[in-house]
């Protein structure tokens, strides 16, 4: 990896010269199946807590009928992005999910709150939870298919790119979980600093859904620590939108 400018952010180092050569074959292989594995016990507990939060949120607002609208921030890290998303969806519960307790313990700190919300109170529609993403998505899809949840927006900001070619099938769009991910929400927004990842994700989503586009973007207000670091390092960022 080579350092990028003075901010210390590093660009993605890869042995790939372009999109993964077997992408379409891999995506179509997973298209007709659903990735199922035993759900981690702690994720079942975490999902139950998230579901209870959603239920109580709508009870307080007096609109508890199904389907309940829920927004997901998957791989939220320290939770800063969840606060920004919650500001855009003030009347909807926003669930920030990450597998790292260390990262989540930093969620809702004073700097985050002042930057994202302008005050020191965690918004009522924010809930952070520690869980395995793949398991959480499977449980969430069950709720969607039962007509209990509707997910209009699903954020997937700066996922691990697994940049080496021999690790490509660990990327979300080349993993058996991908059809589940696409079935979850009305709109998925992926952000990344690696153009190949963005273009692969767009191509994979297009194969299964046919409504995805990729574009370079420069956030006026960074929403994650990674995004801030990359912007300060003047790296080109990429955004993919996938819509039903």
Please sum up the structure shown:
The protein has helices at residues 23-31, 41-61, 80-88, 101-104, 110-116, 133-145, 178-184, 195-208, 225-232; strands at residues 3-4, 9-10, 68-69, 71-74, 94-98, 126-130, 149-150, 154-157, 187-192, 212-217, 237-243. The chain is of the alpha/beta class.
Task: Set out the fold topology.
Elements: E1 3-4, E2 9-10, H1 23-31, H2 41-61, E3 68-69, E4 71-74, H3 80-88, E5 94-98, H4 101-104, H5 110-116, E6 126-130, H6 133-145, E7 149-150, E8 154-157, H7 178-184, E9 187-192, H8 195-208, E10 212-217, H9 225-232, E11 237-243
Provide a descriptive summary of the structure in words.
- This protein has 244 residues and is α/β, with parallel strands linked by helices.
- The protein has a single domain (20-55, 65-243), classed as Vaccinia Virus protein VP39 (Rossmann fold, 3-Layer(aba) Sandwich).
- It has nine helices and eleven strands.
- The chain has helices at residues 23-31, 41-61, 80-88, 101-104, 110-116, 133-145, 178-184, 195-208, 225-232, and strands at residues 3-4, 9-10, 68-69, 71-74, 94-98, 126-130, 149-150, 154-157, 187-192, 212-217, 237-243.
- The strands form three sheets. The chain has a seven-stranded mixed beta sheet with strand order 6-5-4-8-9-11-10, sandwiched between helices.
- α1 packs across α8, α2 crosses α6 (133-145) and α6 (133-145) packs across α7.
- The radius of gyration is 18 Å and the shape is globular.
- The model is unreliable at 1-7 (pLDDT under 50).
């Amino acid at each position: 990896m080579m350092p990028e400018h003075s901010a210390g952010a590093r660009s993605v180092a890869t042995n790939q010269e372009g999109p993964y050569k077997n992408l379409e074959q891999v995506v179509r292989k997973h298209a007709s199946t659903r990735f199922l594995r035993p759900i981690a016990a702690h994720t079942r507990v975490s999902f139950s807590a998230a579901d209870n939060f959603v239920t109580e949120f709508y009870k307080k607002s007096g609109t508890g009928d199904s389907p309940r609208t829920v927004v997901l921030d998957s791989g939220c890290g320290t939770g800063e992005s969840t606060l920004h998303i919650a500001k855009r969806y003030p009347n909807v519960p926003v669930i920030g999910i990450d597998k790292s307790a260390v990262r989540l313990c930093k969620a809702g700190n004073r700097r985050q709150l002042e930057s994202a919300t302008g005050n020191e109170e965690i918004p009522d529609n924010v809930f952070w939870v520690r869980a395995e993403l793949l398991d959480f998505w499977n449980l969430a899809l069950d709720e969607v298919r039962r007509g209990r949840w509707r997910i209009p927006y699903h954020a997937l900001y700066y996922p691990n790119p697994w940049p080496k070619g021999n690790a490509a099938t660990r990327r979300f769009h080349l993993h058996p979980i991908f059809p589940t991910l696409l079935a979850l929400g009305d709109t998925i927004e992926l952000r990344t600093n690696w153009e190949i990842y963005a273009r692969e994700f767009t191509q994979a989503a297009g194969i299964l859904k046919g409504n995805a586009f990729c574009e370079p973007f420069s956030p006026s207000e960074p929403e994650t620590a990674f995004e801030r670091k990359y912007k300060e390092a003047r790296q080109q960022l990429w955004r993919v939108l996938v819509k039903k």
